[in-house]
Amino acid sequence: MKISIEDVKKLRIKTGAGIAGCRKALEEANGDFKKAEGLLKSRGAEIASKKKDRATGQGLVETYIHGGGKVGTMVEVNCETDFVAKTDEFKNLAHEVAMQIAAMDPADVEELSKQEYIRDSSKTIDDLIKEIIAKVGENIVIRRFIRFELGGQ
């Protein structure tokens, strides 16, 4: 089946996957966008599982203040290299995780990972991390976080 560049572009914009990956997924799915998205998601999970044991000694500490200064979070998100830590994808992930913590008040990293992502309830924070791992090609780990709320314990 002939896949148009417009279809590849549309899938790339929606998923953030690479051009070659989008083309291959669309070809395997015979042009079916839903099926191609599923293929890309499963490939991303495969990539993430292969990288999960790699050391993560670099990263960012991200902060987020919400509610006119009534709630604040600080999260440490780690990756393998400082190069990836400086990418927009990684910085955005750290910011989204900090916002998630402010909004959902998880008890620990394990609970955070299992929570529905506040911007897209069809995926968890763990799914979001796996998507970014597939894009940047490095292991990513949420190491720790803290959440402060005015008047809280």
TrEMBL record:
Q: Where in the cell is it found?
A: Cytoplasm
Is Protein biosynthesis one of the keywords?
yes
Primary location recorded for the protein, binned into one broad class: cytoplasm
Positions of region (Involved in Mg(2+) ion dislocation from EF-Tu): 81-84
Q: Which domain of life is it from?
A: Bacteria
| Cleaved signal peptide residues | none
Keyword terms of this UniProt record: Cytoplasm, Elongation factor, Protein biosynthesis
CDD domains assigned: UBA_EF-Ts
Can you tell me where the transmembrane regions are?
A: none
Pfam assignment, any one: EF_TS
Domain Translation elongation factor EFTs/EF1B dimerisation: start-end pairs: 72-150
Any one annotated GO CC term: cytoplasm
Record-level Gene Ontology MF annotations? translation elongation factor activity
Which PROSITE patterns does this one have?
EF_TS_2
Q: What does this protein do?
A: Associates with the EF-Tu.GDP complex and induces the exchange of GDP to GTP. It remains bound to the aminoacyl-tRNA.EF-Tu.GTP complex up to the GTP hydrolysis stage on the ribosome.
Family of the protein in this entry: Belongs to the EF-Ts family.
- Its name, as the record gives it, is Elongation factor Ts
